[in-house]
Amino acid sequence: MSSAVFSTSAAQSRPFVFASENEAEVCPEPLGVELFNEARPPQRADNTGLPRAFQDSRLAGVTAASRLAVRPAPEMVSSGIAAMDTLTGGLPRGCLTEICGPASSGRSTLMLSALAAATGRREFCAVIDASDALDPQSVASAGIELDRLLWVRCGENSHHAEHRLEQLLRVTDLLLESGGFGLIVLDLGDLPPQTARRIPLTTWFRFRRAVEHTPTVLLTVERQSIAGSCSSLLIKLGFIKLGSIKLNPSENPEHPMNSQFPAPTHAQLLTGLEITAELVRSRMERKPVRSAEITFASKTAWAG
Asked: What does the DSSP assignment read for 169-189?
């Protein structure tokens, strides 16, 4: 029998000895490590499917990449406006959605439509009103079931925007922790932008984590986007055309607007808006979505 000794530059002064099968083992395998070759396939554990070399207790909390589950896409529900659902696919459950735009841009229209759709699905909803701006008559006209709506009036007894903001954040935490709501709306539309921007990004991150894995739609209505990357859907609204009719008491003397507030012949009565909606950000798809726009109409209650 003959044997040979080899050494490599990677392991100087540590020779490896290879002998024939009839001789005793010269270099036994080191403990805890198995050398795999074609004649001896790797042994695998029954429960994890990993080689025994990876069964070390230090790796017990590590999950193999091949076993990572793909996060399912969130369930989408209707916003109550068909054109908006075509643009965004609806409102995602378990996510934060931002609706931003200037005054008279359709923010309240979209908010009331979403509330009407949610109560129509027999879900309980909450509106956290930072400025006490919600109009009960508009709520009833939108078809919202009032017995399924919780209205939190943060600005009812406070004239300081900072105090109203503090109340809004505290109530939002309580409602998200309690659960049971299909839609929670944070109405920041009438807060000054500089006040709304005082909400730290960590607060939005906490809200996003709290609503995650729940059936709740968290909707924020505001003038400008303030939640940053914490929002899964960002919609920017604006208006392009106003609808109006000419008020003339002689043409319709029984009209409430004419009988209570006689108007000059040149007066105009607002009947509706033509609203544009732009999809600024959507995390519903794996690749970035390109900006898209739609147009829809909104009419006033007295326009019929």
From this structure: HHHHHHHHHH---SEEEEE-T
